[in-house]
Write the structure tokens for this entry.
Amino acid sequence: MSATLQTAETRTMTGAEIVLQALKDNGVEVIFGYPGGAVLPLYDALFQQNAIRHILVRHEQAAVHAAEGYARSTGKVGVVLVTSGPGATNAVTGLVDALMDSIPVICLTGQVPTHLIGNDAFQEADTTGITRPATKHNYLVKDIRKLAGTVHEAFYVAKSGRPGPVVIDLPKDILIGKGPYSEAPQAPHRSYRPQTEPDMASIRAAVRLLKGARRPIVYAGGGVINAGPEASRLLNEFVHMTRMPCTNTLMGLGAFPAEDPQFLGMLGMHGTYEANLAMHGCDVMLNIGARFDDRVTGRLNAFSPNSKKIHADIDPSSINKNVKVDVAIVGDAGAVLKALIECWQADEQPQDRAAIAEWWRAIDGWRGTGCLQYRQEGSIIKPQHAVKRLYEITREMGRETFITTEVGQHQMWAAQYFGFQKPNRWMTSGGLGTMGYGLPAAMGVQIAHPDALVIDIAGEASILMNIQEMGTLAQYRLPVKVFILNNEYMGMVRQWQELLHGSRYSESYSEALPDFVRLAEAFHARGMRVTEASQLDDAIREMIAHPGPVIADIAVAKDENCFPMIPSGAAHNEMILAPGQKGGVTGVTDEGKVLV
Amino acid sequence: MPDSLETTLRNATIAVLVENEAGILARVVGLFSGRGYNIESLTVAPVDADRRLSRITIVTSGTDMVIEQIKAQLDRLVPVHKVSDLTLEGPHIARELALIKVVGKGEARMEALRLADAFRARVVDATIESFVFEMTGAGEKLDAFIALMRPIGLAEVSRTGVVAIARGPGGFEA
């Protein structure tokens, strides 16, 4: 059998062997999964080979998030294997998460044998029906002669154009039956051939606008990360040669170095004052690989009202979806940046340097607000301080560090206070906002980077949504650090209740929390609890120094809100700042309350 | 409404060339329901057996921005070969077929026949007290005929929905 896996000439194999051979031919080294009746033939084939490593998770949702973490930190396709019925339905949240954040994932699902499909058989679910809107594409393989080709095509679809999750539903008789293996075809796909090279006329139009800009801004998103590290390097080059300010979306953090003087921080609902005011006041905006998400734009009819907008995206359906733009560029972010740089250099039109300098003076004025400042006084740990110290200590240590998060206030504080200098170091659930994402994603990152420091910045509520994965950490000795900002509330829910619902904290208190130290110990990990600000630094160092998995339960201020904040339904220039900072407004309109 | 500045609705007849495979219709219909687009009419049938191609014709309505979205969303479905907004891309012919059952006796029956003749509807089934007419044409022509049959004894209507094709020599190749 291992011999079968090593040679890929056309020969007859079982369906399970065909699947594994195709995975191997597509460069797969690790898959995340959970066995069950319908996929037993695949697990049997896995048992008899060594080329592909299987990581046993504790819940199928976690398998998908782990594959996402693996994919986002490596640029490769993440692979998941789950059984039929509940195995597949449990994976759905992860699939939608990967769809919203454009993460390439292949999910192999078991299915009842073809002759039983539609009979309400044991552990049968209409997986392709359920996952159709949850995936970029999906397949049900009913003919073993098409099996190898389908797996190859799934890899092509998952990673081409705008990446995304692909499901292959595999009936058990197909896995057991015998059929021919074929290698990946050389011919282009019959119908799916996304455009990656930009049209030069649109590049020239963009450069003309940008050269004439007096108040330009570059707004870069996850598309730059997905385009590979070279795209981030080109972004850096472009921003520096054009002297423009640059802001990143939540998904784009790391695409531009956080400590670069031209970086304005994250934009959007919890973005910086300077980034949002620069977006509001700019005259030319260059959006690369972002999608004008509602968390970014705020109220649409007040979004950057006086700017010409250039939008470069690999997905034509992202263009003119929410915001009408003046110049549309379809292409891969790296290819677009390369073309922009070349065209900028060739274009003779001079830039108005005096106007740009004036623009920077305005930006520096907004920066002077110090919108991310906080006061760490007394013994109660401010959550912002906990993240900031975590960042500073890991930076001093100089270790390769990867951060994942759950969803909520802690996620926004992580985005605000942890600086990312490189792409692929930041894994967070942006589009879907999936609580329970961070721990399994960190597992996937740690599998891909065994020697790196991988930290899940978590909240005490989110972490409980996939806490069972502590078992996976123990089994594979994955030294993931879980850094819980424990404020005993679903903090973002509490914050919205305070600001929008008269401080009626309906069901947002984290009642009956576990003792996280003993919980860690029960899962063979190290548990720590920190309650005093004076203990924080030592605790962080101790957590990092421990060779195995750790849960660090950091008791933080319970009523801290995450600021700045653009309330829902408001515009970028209507931000709420932290109490004591000047500027901004308070209050949310009734219209805004409808929004999420 | 994504853009408050743009509220003018227009109709669009969109032709989509797709792989003839299981689930393709569900993908297209799911896209429309999932994203809240209108479907006024949808037809589908294989058009090229050798190359396993089917053609879907969708009549929808929306602002220009929404119709551009619909096209882009259809185009990124993996089994979709080509999408064309026939309404936007020049003159085209749109036709629909209807089978119309009219029940009645005596003068009403004769009146139905006379009107059918005027509308060039064919009788494809007849009994002592009923006709089934077959009629092809633009949707409005079918609407008009059906409205006339209503007082006479309209019993049942079955319509195919719109099929459409561009005028002139230009083709719609995969």
About this structure: The first helix of chain B runs from residue 24 to 35.
